[in-house]
Specification:
Helices cover 30% and strands 31% of the residues. The strands form 2 sheets. The protein has a 5-stranded mixed beta sheet with strand order 4-1-7-5-6. InterPro entries: MECDP_synthase (IPR003526), MECDP_synthase_CS (IPR020555), MECDP_synthase_sf (IPR036571).
């Protein structure tokens, strides 16, 4: 078994779509980034890459490479899943939290879980997503950005 942790944050800006967990959320701002800036999927990818000892998404998908400009993070997650599978692992479980004052995430969490489970080629029961506010404290509480944290457990495919 291998355990990894991931963290990501993106700034909220005008004239961008807000995509979290592969779900487009109607909101007056979106997340700034080289790709679609899906903060949740980025944190999940970092937790998986960390568990495998393979760096982070900046190593695998550098923001200096135009091939990833505007990239769909679900496509990138499938690439990480393929790397995980070829390395002999599968998901034991993923537990994540989205940290945002607004918008409300709860109406979107089940769809996020379905998307991520599909991309990770695992059962939806192995994916947990929570959301919290910061009670108006910090950059998230001021509505300047959204953060996400994730931890994952990878298990050896041969032993399970």
């Amino acid at each position: 078994m291998k355990i990894g942790i991931g963290y990501d944050v993106h700034k909220l800006v005008e004239n961008r779509k807000l995509i979290i967990g592969g779900v487009e959320i109607i909101f007056e701002k979106g997340l700034e980034g080289h790709s679609d800036a899906d903060v949740l999927i980025h944190a999940i990818m970092d937790s998986i890459l960390g568990a495998m000892g393979k760096g982070d998404i900046g190593c695998l998908f550098p923001d200096t490479d135009d091939a990833y400009k505007g990239a769909n993070s679900r496509v990138l997650l499938r690439t990480v899943t393929d790397l995980m599978t070829k390395s002999g692992f599968k998901i034991g479980n993923v537990d994540s939290v989205i940290i945002a004052q607004k918008p409300k995430m709860m109406p979107h969490i089940e769809k996020m879980k379905r998307n991520i489970a599909e991309d990770l080629e695992t059962d939806i029961s192995n994916v947990n997503i929570k959301a919290t506010t910061t009670e108006h404290l910090g950059f998230e509480g001021r509505g300047e950005g959204i953060a996400a944290q994730s931890v994952c457990l990878l298990v050896n495919k041969e032993n399970h």
